[in-house]
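Researcher: Re-running this chain for the archive, since the previous output was lost when a drive failed. Same request as before.
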Amino acid sequence: MYFFWRSFWDKIWPRVCYSCACELVLAESTLCSTCLDEVHAAQLSVQHPLPLLDSTECWLDFDAKPVQRFMHQVKFGQRPEMAFRLGQLYAATHEPPHVDALVPAPLSWRRHWVRGYNQSEWLVRGLAQEWQLPVWRVLRKKHRPPQAKMKLEDRSKSAHGAYWLAQSLPPGCRLQLWDDTLTTGATLQAMAVVLYRGGASEVHGATLARAL
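Model: Regenerated structure tokens:
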């Protein structure tokens, strides 16, 4: 019965792929099969650890054209549901981490107000739903200029001192910290320092994409 009504409503209000805008068929959700194939083809095979994190995992190659399109939609295209779906896809193909909670990278209140949502939080919701892990929204961020327009050496300066804990952490907790894209690693490491100082014994960093 579900598929009957799904097919019926699709004829009245066709669903489209959030990435390429083609019409979705019955079994597809959020992304079409072509875009899903592009996601799988863009997976990174080599990881580059960051010194202040217990581990670092980046899923997709940002330099792949489809991934740039996905990430633009996630951050600037008013498509938070796409971040949620990508989180689900990642979780479906990766084992749950051995951590107590998932922590999304925060936006400053001003950027959150302008954008209307935090893409990292939507991503983590998708992960948490599949992995059955709690989400701790414990980090806050001061407003800083967008890092995308900064030189690489200026990103570390911008990230330093930009984050703080909004609430205390259970001593010795293990956390996986999520952001949308890793470039220099300055943002993840700045957040990790705050979490360690707040009592975390392990902080594992992860992102949807890595830009070299």
